[in-house]
Structure formats: structure tokens, C-alpha cells
Amino acid sequence: MGLWKNIVALLLLLSSCAALAEKFTIAAASDLRYALNEVIVEYRKQYPNHEPTVIYGSSGKMTTQIVNGAPYDIFFSADIGFPQKLHAEGFAVTEPAVYAIGRVVLWSANHDASQLTLKDLAADTFRRIAIAQPAHAPSGQRDKEAMQDAGVGSG
After folding, report:
1. Cα–Cα distance between 152 and 64 in angstroms, integer?
2. Cβ atoms within 10 A of the Cβ of 155, count?
3. Other CB atoms closer than 10 Å to residue 75's CB: what's the count?
4. Residue 58 · residue 136 · CB < 8 Å
5. Among 139, 155, 150, 118, which residue's Cα sits nearest to residue 58?
6. d(CA 94, CA 125)
7. This prediction's pTM
8. What's the pLDDT at 152?
9. Which of these three, 88, 115, 142, is where a domain ends?
């Protein structure tokens, strides 16, 4: 149910572009690819004459591109800090809005992850932990911070 509420919210955001232009470009964080592709399919059903183009990439790199003149009409960032910065510096017309909240998810091929907490990852039974690259992905940075807060790893 939560995913569909977010998809509906994204559709509403996209539909606001309907009055602006038939062609528009969306810059979106890579982790939105699957959800946003579904949203675009639904959007095209409602607005068959519109041609949204989606470019996926790093939120930080897209922020830099926008500052340097990239012609994006909508920006879906993985971290609210990037659009807030753009707005503060005059690169966004409207105040940024949060469209989703990310959560740390534990997955294991060898352990029942539904019973694990972040603190459990400090145990010797876990030799490797994979997260997105913190320097490039906001989700990786949040994962790193959460694990450090839980006493996992050296950083």
C-alpha cells in the first residue's frame, strides 16, 4: 500500500508538468529506476501527447549538472539536501518536497535477516557487509551512519 501511495504522489507531481509542456526532462536518482519507470507508464496513459524523458544518475552529480545549466524540468533526488541546496541558491522555482523515506534493509543468504538488528552485524559470523558507495550514493552514506551509530565497523 505504501509503494502505491508514493507512486500516486509521483503521478500528481508529474501531472503538474502537464500544463507546462508536452516534452519535459526528469533527472532522477538511480535507485528510483524501477518505481519511476512504472509511474511513467501510468503517466503516459493519462497524458498520451506528453513525452517525459527520464535521465537516471547520482543525485550529487545531477545537482552539479543543474548548477551548470543542465535543462532538467523535474529533479527526484535520493537526498533532500541536494534540492534544498539548489533552491537556496536560486536554481529551483519551488520549495523541495519529500516524496519518500528510505529505510535500511538487512538481507542475508545465510541468516534469517528478519530477526537481525544492525548491532548483530558486529558479530564475527558476518565477515562481509555490502552497502552502496557512501561517497556517491546518499543511501550508502545513510547506511554507513546507521551502522556506525550501531557500533558496526570502523567507518
Report:
1. 32
2. 8
3. 22
4. yes
5. 139
6. 48
7. 0.72
8. 87
9. 88
2, 16, 74, 110, 149 from 45: Cα distances, Å: 22, 15, 19, 43, 45
What is the rounded CA–CA span in Å between residue 40 and residue 25? Answer: 12
7 band by pLDDT with thresholds 50, 70 and 90: low
Q: Are residues 9 and 55 both part of a single domain?
A: yes
For residue 54, give Cα distances in angstroms to 39, 41, 42, 76, 144. Answer: 11, 12, 14, 10, 29
C-alpha span between 114 and 59 (Å, rounded)? 30
Q: How much is the pLDDT for 16?
A: 59
User: Count of domains in the chain?
Assistant: 2
Using the Cα atoms of residue 114, residue 119, residue 124 and residue 126 in order, give the sign of their dihedral. positive
State whether residue 112 is helix, strand or coil. Answer: coil
- In whole angstroms, how large is the CA radius of gyration of the chain? 18
